[in-house]
Amino acid sequence: MASRKTLSGIVIRMSRNKTAVVKVNLEKRHPQYHKKYTVAKKYKVHDENNTAQVGDKVRIEETRPRSREKHWRIV
User: What's phi and psi for 30, nearest 5 deg?
Assistant: First the structure.
């Protein structure tokens, strides 16, 4: 069985009940010029107990689809 993807990011918004928006910064390298650059992406994540607050650093894990846009959960 394959392991699930995990990412770490910062909670930037508490959207609805049991939902948070997490901003993840990924560092990539250009294939030809080998320069590093940062790509930011926002994920809607499932927070079962509403424990996360804005500004918290959290680890998220890929999971089954909870809704149309939520495919991640807070670990």
Answer: -65, 135
**Quick one: 39 exposed, middle or buried, by C-beta within 10 A (0-12, 13-18, 19+)?**
exposed
pLDDT digits (tens, 9 = 90+) for 25-55: 999 999 999 999 999 999 999 999 999 999 9
Domain ranges for the chain: 6-74
**Across the strands, what pairs with 44?**
21
Neighbours of 12 (CB within 10 A): 13
The model's pTM? 0.87
CATH number of 6-74: 2.40.50.140
| pLDDT above 70 as % of the chain | 97
